[in-house]
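Incident review: delayed structure delivery

Summary: a single-chain prediction request sat in the queue longer than the usual turnaround. Root cause was a stuck worker, restarted by the on-call engineer. No data loss occurred. The affected request and its eventual output are reproduced below so the record is complete for anyone auditing the incident later.

Affected input:
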Amino acid sequence: MPTFNAPDGTVLAYHATGDGPPLICLPGGPMQASAYLGDLGGLTAHRTLIRLDLRGTGDSATPTDPASYRCDRLVHDAEALRKELGLERVDLLAHSAGANLAALYTTHHPDRVARLALITPSVYAAGIDIAAEDRLGAARLRRDEEWFGAAYAALEAVTEGRAAGDDWEAIAPFWFARWDEEARAVRAAEAEQRNGEAAAVYGSEGAFDPEATRAALAGFEGRVLVLAGEVDVAAPPRAMGEYAGLFAEGELVVQAGAAHFPWLDDAGSFVSAVEGFLGA
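Output delivered after worker restart:
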């Protein structure tokens, strides 16, 4: 397991697996160890995945300054990884909350990003509003699931700002196309893989400047893929289309039947879409 030093001296780890050109992968959570990304549905057959464990997660060290968990400060860690790998420009993939870091990295280092793949991305850094009906509409596509009634009631509570503690766990089936044993295992592993203290700091005050970020992303000249899941309540397709539209060379792909983890939902479709974009 290779390691390198962040600018503040924190020892960070990354995991390199697969064959082909390197693809730096930023995990979501926020602040979840990169292990959950696995081989991204077999993308390792085409790319060498460089999965970064963000500071305080996975095999990376805990920093002395907890404020360094803030998303804009993690940009320095991503740039240190690029330098460690000796790459002039990188292909960058980010999932969920990791897309906020990818957006800020692209904002600050646009000349270092060749292609950007945002997988069911969080939109906080770009300041896109996701309407409650966008989430509920995606959820209603699952109305035939046996768990739908309780999960949908909990999602309504979440979108209306009246969620109780149990409601967040009740909506878990919506994150996956199949609420099966594999999905339950992925969900259960989050508790150990995610750094709660770091997550609380990640998007804290000062982390994001949406207006400035949107302006910078509009000027980015590289190609961008925004991959949405058809039934994803976290990153519904309408909002993902708005995100793709921020970029001069943005492309929206909606993976049929997929939720928030599209490589688990249909590995073949996911790999085809991502590799088709990266290899074009």
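Verification: The beta strands are 3-5, 11-18, 22-26, 48-53, 90-95, 113-119, 223-229, 250-255.
Action items: add queue-age alerting; document worker restart procedure.
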